[in-house]
């Protein structure tokens, strides 16, 4: 369960795309999202909505050679402190804290294993995010970090966000573990917002870590079929995962990773 107002919780996500119109067509076909421009001064940035609620943002890639990918933002109470913690913990500050039209401040980082992410500190008295849709069909319901170095990643994120990290075995008899991520003081059984998987460098694009969002859907089979029909790639599934639901791991037409899930219950 994602509570976007909790410190350390996912509170937003957006994607840089070489063709925002094509990305809007793709995610519209798969998840029913509709694009709304953020205005003439937003540099082509806009938001995706479904059922009148905001689900994510999209903007044009601006750096030469940059690849499309989802960026997950995490809620922080003090962005300057977070930035210093990133530096002192072996991470990299890619974008220094910057004001976002008086609504708050954002910064973008890379963790020591290569995973790119961002943080957000809302301004006092700023408009609330009541219209952001999470944990519902067509919206973010989980985030996952794929990394080659679980120990380093765990230490970094625990120091930065204070996350609780709980191990659970994966199906089968192997030693592999899935690590549940929960905000400080939360209950991992009901408040977990994400997971962490350790993988070999050969199984990761470019050999480094990345964050990938998971979107809830009422019919994973149907929407996974739409992924390929709309020009994306199905990497795994749809497959039933006991006690979890039916899951499909996908790439959009520009190579950005995401998953679909029809949760149990």
UniProtKB/TrEMBL annotation:
What superkingdom heads the lineage?
Answer: Bacteria
- A Pfam family assignment: Glyoxalase
**What PROSITE patterns has UniProt attached to this entry?**
VOC
- Can you give the residue ranges of the VOC domain? 9-122, 139-263
- What is the protein's given name? VOC family protein
| Organism expressing this protein natively | Streptomyces lonarensis
